[in-house]
Specification:
heterodimer; A: 577 residues; alpha+beta; Beta Polymerase, domain 2; Cytochrome-c3 Hydrogenase, chain B; 3 domains; 5-stranded mixed β-sheet; 3-stranded antiparallel β-sheet; 15% strand; B: 181 residues; alpha/beta; Rossmann fold; 5-stranded parallel β-sheet; 5 helices; 5 strands
């Protein structure tokens, strides 16, 4: 039986000088003209020639002085007027050193990018997305096909010359054909059968398609298809101004929409260099933790439903209803709140915020206790979950995992601890870590995190609500108060400018991350100063996790596959954006 | 029947059938996105849609009479939705839950269908992004009334066809009007 480990040691922070030395040493091994550092950005950035990319990636991962073991994100950027036209942007992270690095590879349309799958397995789906959205070729990729758009799609949607509303019809002859990596064995005792599960299947949560080759009850090989909820978040962001993107972020991970608001607003605030008032920071931290509790409740509830425990679903949904009440009193919406704003919050907290939150702290724990009593030592649940879909920590990192699923595999990486933001470094909490890496530990870790979240909220409530404004008073960022708009010429002009032109974000680019409910939620934003995002790439935490799904279920039985999907907490809105 | 004691109730069989159908929907939840979460809230203990006889969700189109489309449907999903609708047995009804299913919502984009009525007929549109559980329940109540009307029309039509003696294709979509919750 897996047990709770002692609190992990703090992530050792290497001195900044050593980090740059490591980078310099790696850089010295390549010709000087092939790597050009770009100065003045939020994190170290190298412009890299594509010929050396594969070698460089391997050295960055393996050199003990750099040790970039996690490939966070791959983003494409299109500059139609530039030669070469495209950029492939890689974001790397070193878990042990806490350092980050951005690699930019400029390339033209006909120049193939080397595949980085041998270095980081996480690159697989990211490269397919790059091909799908920008038409960039990747040499050495085993299955370079469209990922998000359907097979009947013509053109590449995120290129600047693609009309955002141009649609294509999917005809039956173009539907995705699975590709299996069948193991080469001679022991074919049974006839193999291919089953298709989903997308309209309750266990596939409505939007994923799993095709599995079965030998009896065992899955020999499988292929996963996604894209059934791709709704063009990134293209929509490019056609709206910076404030108008906030409602779209709600609908990424709709189980914890407020965290998405915070993640996006923090990115734009970083570009604008705006100070958020303490009252808003305090409220953001508390509501983010409540959102995390909601998300974990849905995840654990639906995992248990998938394995047959319907009662727990009702038990886990009631805390959600109660938290909806608090969010509704803050902003009027239950699920998709849009409560964050660039520079603060949409409106002030309700007068009874403290009482409501305190009441929630009393209501929620009994539900969690009930489910734990029902499930934790339940023979059926243990038999179905312990050892199922297990993955070791270093392998999970190579696949790009973050969040509770990674922490269930023994890697204590949490953005709130490794790169503290908001008030997380001022409260006393611990990062729960388990070592089983299976479905059971993924369930347990969420239960432990709910308790940590409750503890964070309690400490912040005890500290008292900070007085002051709920949004910054910078008139270029936040709307002036309504009264001032009616009575002061200046305020009216600011109001008009903000409504008509939107926030004018200066030219620049940044990557900013928060700990989403199932991992590192990052936004990579590029602004060209035109009042709209030039490029906004969301780093969805469940995207690399779900790309591992075939690896997790191959060799197990079909029923194991069903149970393991729930525990990964895959939210389609965020996965496919 | 001991519930009504010794008394008698007289009715026509078809009335009994109407009454049963409109008070006991078996919805097929075609949930894809955020609306599906609100649909789960509607199902769960707090809002308890069982009070309106619609809690028996069936994940097989063969066993359900109401298709509840909750969430964005994109061009990749459209053939799937159409196939599910075709597999349902007549008579059948469709509730379109949320702005995306009704009209594409604020996703006026290259991969999103601008309303499910591009591929299947819809009886009740429930607006909202996502609709509150109260909104969805109101939509279900609206559908209840529509089912009563539809069944009367269907019978009248079947009778007239029988009288004319010509076998024609009977469609339950004879009336084009649809209610909006």
């Amino acid at each position: 039986m897996p047990t709770l480990a002692p609190p992990p040691p703090e992530t050792p922070e290497a001195p900044a000088a050593a980090a740059t030395d490591g980078l310099a040493a790696v850089r010295a091994r390549f010709p000087a003209e092939s790597i050009t550092p770009q100065q003045g950005l939020d994190q170290p950035t190298w412009i890299v020639e594509r010929e050396i990319l594969a070698d460089l990636a391997r050295q960055l991962r393996d050199d003990p002085a750099t040790k970039f073991d996690l490939l966070l994100d791959v983003a494409g950027v299109d500059f139609p007027d530039r030669e070469p036209r495209f950029d492939a942007v890689y974001h790397l992270c070193s878990l042990s050193r806490g350092a980050r690095l951005r690699l930019k590879v400029p390339l033209a349309e006909d120049q193939p990018l080397p595949s980085l799958i041998p270095v980081w397995k996480a690159a697989n789906w990211f490269e397919r997305e790059l091909y799908d959205m920008f038409g960039l070729q990747v040499s050495g990729h085993p299955n370079l096909r469209r990922l998000l758009c359907h097979e009947g799609f013509q053109g590449h949607a995120l290129r600047k010359d693609y009309d955002p509303a141009r649609r294509w019809i999917l005809t039956e002859d173009k539907i995705y054909q699975p590709k299996f990596d069948l193991p080469q064995t001679a022991d074919d005792l049974f006839e193999r059968m291919i089953v298709n599960i989903g997308p309209s299947h309750p266990a596939m949560h409505g939007t994923f398609r799993l095709m599995a080759v079965l030998d009896g009850e065992t899955i020999v090989a499988s292929d996963v298809e996604i894209g059934y909820l791709h709704r063009c978040f990134e293209k929509m962001a490019e056609t709206h101004n910076w404030q108008q993107v906030i409602p779209y972020t709600d609908r990424l991970n709709y189980c914890s929409s407020f965290i998405n608001n915070v993640g996006y607003c923090r990115t734009v605030e970083k570009l604008l260099q705006v100070e958020v008032p303490p009252r808003a920071v305090w409220a953001r931290t508390i509501l983010s933790e409540f959102s995390r509790i909601m998300d974990h409740c849905v995840c654990n509830g639906s995992t248990l439903v998938d394995s047959g425990g319907l009662t727990n679903f009702w038990y886990m949904f009631q805390p959600r209803e109660e938290i909806y009440g608090l969010l509704e009193s803050c902003c009027g919406a239950r699920l998709t709140v849009s409560y964050g704003r660039i520079g603060g919050l949409a409106q002030d907290l309700p007068p009874d915020f403290m009482e409501r939150s305190r009441r929630l702290l009393e209501i929620i724990p009994p539900f969690i206790d009930d489910v734990e009593k029902l499930v934790d030592k339940n023979r059926i649940w243990i038999d179905r979950s312990v050892g199922v879909a297990a993955i070791a920590g270093d392998e999970a990192v190579n696949w790009g995992w973050t969040g509770p699923c990674l922490r269930a595999s023994g890697v204590p990486y949490d953005v709130r601890r490794a790169h503290p933001y908001d008030l997380y470094d001022t409260v006393d909490w611990e990062v729960p870590v388990l070592y089983g890496g299976d479905v059971y530990d993924r369930y347990r870790i969420r239960m432990l995190e709910i308790r940590q979240s409750l503890s964070i909220i309690r400490q912040l409530l005890d500290r008292g609500m900070p007085e002051g404004p709920y949004i910054t008073d910078d008139p270029h960022v936040a709307l002036p108060p309504k009264e001032a708009c009616y009575n002061q010429m200046e305020a009216m002009i600011y109001h008009f400018k903000l409504i008509m032109d939107g926030i004018q974000v200066p030219e620049g680019e940044t990557y900013s991350m928060v700990e989403g409910a199932n991992g590192e939620l990052g936004f990579y934003a590029i602004s060209d100063g035109s009042g709209r995002p030039y490029r906004l790439k969301c780093r969805p935490p469940c995207f690399p996790i779900f790309s591992t799904f075939s690896r997790l279920i191959d060799g197990g039985s079909v029923s194991d596959a069903i149970v393991s999907l729930g525990g990964l907490n895959i939210i389609a809105g965020e996965l496919e954006r | 029947m001991n519930i009504i004691g010794e008394s008698w109730v007289t009715t026509k069989f078809e009335n009994l059938e109407d009454w049963a159908q409109r008070n006991s929907f078996w919805p097929f939840p075609f949930g894809t996105a955020c609306c599906a979460i609100e649909f789960m809230s509607t199902l769960s203990s707090h809002y308890d849609v069982a009070r309106f006889g619609s809690e028996v969700v069936r994940f097989s189109p063969r066993q359900s009479d109401v298709l509840l489309v909750a969430g964005t449907i994109n061009d990749k999903m459209a053939p799937v939705l159409k196939k599910i609708y075709d597999q349902m047995a007549d008579p059948k009804w469709v509730i379109s839950m949320g702005a995306c299913a009704c009209s594409g919502g604020f996703y006026r984009a290259y991969h999103v269908m601008q309303g499910i009525d591009e591929v299947i007929p819809v009886d009740v549109y429930v607006p909202g992004c996502p609709p509150t559980p109260e909104g969805l329940i109101y939509g279900i109540l609206q559908l209840k009334e529509k089912v009563a009307r539809d069944r009367k029309k269907l019978r009248a039509r079947a009778k007239s066809i029988a009288a004319e003696g010509e076998p024609r294709e009977v469609s339950d979509r004879a009336d084009a009007g649809s209610a909006t919750a």
